[in-house]
Amino acid sequence: MAYDEVLRGYEPVLGLETHVELGTRSKMFCSCATAFGAEPNTQVCPVCLALPGSLPVVNGVAVESAIRLGLALNCSVASWCRFARKNYFYPDMPKNYQISQYDEPLCFDGHLDITVDTPDGPREFRIEIERVHMEEDTGKTAHMGGATGRIHGAEYSIVDYNRAGIPLLEIVTRPIENTGDLAPLVARAYVSELRELVRSLGISDVRMEEGSMRCDVNVSLMPRGATEWGTRSETKNVNSLRSVERAVRHEIERQGGVLSAGGRVVQETRHFQENTGGTVSGRSKEEAQDYRYFPDPDLVPVAPAAEWVEELRAALPELPAARRRRIKAEWNLSDEELRDLVNADAIGLVAETVEAGAPPADARKWWLNELSRRATEAGTELSALAITPAQVARVAALVAEGALTNKLARQVVEGVLAGEGDPDAVVEARGLKVVNDDSALGAAVDQAIADNADAAEKVRGGKVAAAGALVGAVMKATRGQADAGRARQLILERLGVQG
Description:
Elements: H1 3-9, E1 10-21, H2 60-72, E2 76-77, E3 84-87, E4 97-100, E5 107-118, E6 121-136, E7 140-144, E8 156-160, E9 167-173, H3 183-201, E10 213-223, E11 233-238, H4 241-260, E12 268-272, E13 279-284, E14 294-295, H5 306-314, H6 320-330, H7 335-343, H8 347-355, H9 360-378, H10 389-400, H11 406-417, H12 423-430, H13 438-451, H14 453-460, H15 467-477, H16 484-494
Parallel strand pairs: 11-12
Antiparallel strand pairs: 1-9, 1-10, 2-5, 3-4, 3-14, 5-6, 6-9, 7-8, 10-11, 12-13
């Protein structure tokens, strides 16, 4: 059913459950390493493999990270809470239950304010946070031999337990109502703002493409004028901002079509399909799952001292919303320029580039133009490009020094992205330095004048603009490495014309 048509009869209600893998050096309940991309099943031990007699020990840094995020989300922090066992069949969790938190989360009752651009101007929403709780991640199962990568049709499955036990924070919103046709944009803006918040705290790299941040998207439709929510679907493990937006839009259209045809929306988990932008059915949740939670007898309660919590509150860094306000004033940005940075998810990258020495205008130019184009071509996000803000700042500096033209600088960026090294190494290896000394340029200038006699005569006759053709010939002869300004000066001097 068409999106606009659905919204004439129904009001969407959203719920977002976001999982963030913490960037701790060890797992949640053992000392195993957490490095991404290690050989399968090399970062495991008796605890995360659930061997008999092994006992978990809480990662203190993970607790601190959870409290810091809760404070940044305006949550209350529990003075006492416990871990619980969530019993459920996990083929990729060796002990066949997950250590999580249930009715006693560490952080609760918070909010996060977001802004969504509309044709009528910016509109603010306050997203209520129900809870931030700690738990452990599962392992990773791969289904082999099938066409879809899922268990149906697969010949066999393999399991990597490296991820089992990695610290997770789950951030759960309360139902989000009154978003109307902005529902997909609200969902995207919330996850984007949450990601920036987590990144600013330094507790996770939040690389959605690597799974260190992923979102479960709950959507239901409520007939306009009704007081009860509709039946929700839960699209699991959505791993990009664009996909969060697309998943919400698709579920609104799908559920609208089911209801308009007189059908009934089934409460179920669903899987997002990147190639189509749609979702497919996972498993039914018509009956509420009984996870049989009970306090984990192997773990002591967590009771953060009030003094410690206040120390953590006082040490929080500048948060994204405050940083945006400061940057807008310091860089003298218009609302539109700031919006472009936010929409491109580039504000942090640009700020780091400025901190590395680049002027704000140069930093913005590189990230929003050349690098944004390359990210689009690669089908990835800006932050996933293989170039750092410090490297971008160095490219900008080389251009400002006159060592590179913008054209050559783009080649340097290309080399850095290709893994050829830092900007200076790429310049040296590719021989990209600007030719600006007179002895090197003189021969190219003389040859350009000789080969373009008509243009040279026009310049001598006072048509200085004709020098552009001669400069172009010099640039071609030097493979774009000539200092165009100096080449023009030499051309005019050779032809006896004042510039």
